[in-house]
Amino acid sequence: VTKSREVHLVVRPSGIPALADFEVVETDVADAEEGEVLVQNLFMSVDPAMRPRLTDGYDLGQPMAAAAIGRVVQSRTSGLAVGDLVSNGLGFREYFVSPARGLRRLDQVEGQPITVHLHALGGTGFTAYGGILRVARLRPEDRVFVSTAAGAVGSVAAQVAKIKGCWVVGSTGSAEKAAWLKDEVGLDAVIDYKEAPVRRGLRAAAPDGIDVYFDNVGGDHLDAALASMNTLGRAAVCGMISGYNEPGARTTVHNLANIIYGRIEIRGFTVADFADLRDDFRRDMSEWLAAGRIKYRETVLEGIGNAPRALIGLFEGLNTGKMLVKLAD
Ligand SMILES: NC(=O)c1ccc[n+]([C@@H]2O[C@H](COP(=O)([O-])OP(=O)(O)OC[C@H]3O[C@@H](n4cnc5c(N)ncnc54)[C@H](OP(=O)(O)O)[C@@H]3O)[C@@H](O)[C@H]2O)c1
Description:
It is a single chain. By secondary structure, the chain is an alpha/beta fold. It has helices spanning 50-55, 123-135, 152-163, 175-185, 198-205, 219-228, 258-261, 278-290, 307-313; strands spanning 2-9, 22-29, 36-45, 68-75, 85-88, 95-99, 104-105, 143-146, 167-172, 189-192, 210-215, 229-237, 265-268, 298-302, 322-326. Strands 3, 4, 5, 6, 7, 14 and 15 form a seven-stranded mixed sheet that branches. Strands 10-9-8-11-12-13 form a six-stranded parallel sheet, sandwiched between helices. α2 crosses α3 (152-163), α2 (123-135) packs across α8 and α5 runs parallel beside α6. The chain starts with a strand and ends with a strand. The site of NADP nicotinamide-adenine-dinucleotide phosphate (NAP) has 29 residues, from α2 and α3.
């Protein structure tokens, strides 16, 4: 038996979640039985999409779920050995027992931390890659606007557009993140939406308008993008984080009529829409990372007790790049 801790949702939040909505619970995890492994999680992801699940999805009084990377510490199956690193969907807990199926063995990528599998080479990177290339149908001459450009998805979407030769403007919510995007990531222009209304900021930063908008925010950002969109522009709608804390609230968008005059296309997507691109993604992203053409940041909080803090932090802009929780060395 192994002592473990896990995070339960105990109150369904209204508005931005509070620490008191979560509880860290101690449990005993049994040893692995025939065909099973005991896994110790090392890192887990928190994601904006967890917010809707707090309202409707996660069960109260049960461990929450999240993408995670763990190490096999006991094995009773030939498929996995002690020491193997595995990706799993059972974050928000320190240890768990599982059959080998459902766990994917991860290889260390040369020159990269193992956590790269939780962002640039993982779900957020793939979302950005397929969203900007397939859904937005990016062309080299496009002028591209990416919102939450300093976040996990946004920073990759913006850089893929740069790699493809586009002019790229990103929005973010702090001077420090804006400086990272401008000086290190190399975007052509950056808007701090907390300094000035995003609509005004975008007009000033992109006087010739935009052809593509990669939306992570919705609301005022989508509105601003529609106001600046050139004829035959495309919006790939990945997320609408500005509305996640007010389920059922209406997103206020005033410029919908521009869709008509500009013949603008707006298309939402999920990663399932471009599953066929996965091999291309792995090949391209590995190459770009090795060549230093994709830059990333991680914001890492330590300990399972900080997992709720990390999740709430997404809605406060606490993270630059991918928000992660480190659960063990
Ligand atoms: N469609 C899909 O399959 C799919 C898959 C993964 C993610 N997504 C979506 O992609 C988006 C980004 O996800 P991520 O994992 O990369 O998170 P992230 O961007 O790394 O983190 C969230 C960021 O959102 C910004 N933010 C929070 N509240 C905001 C608000 N009210 N207005 C404007 N910005 C706000 C904050 O940055 P600032 O400091 O810049 O405000 C924060 O750092 C989310 O909307 C998510 O739901 C979609």
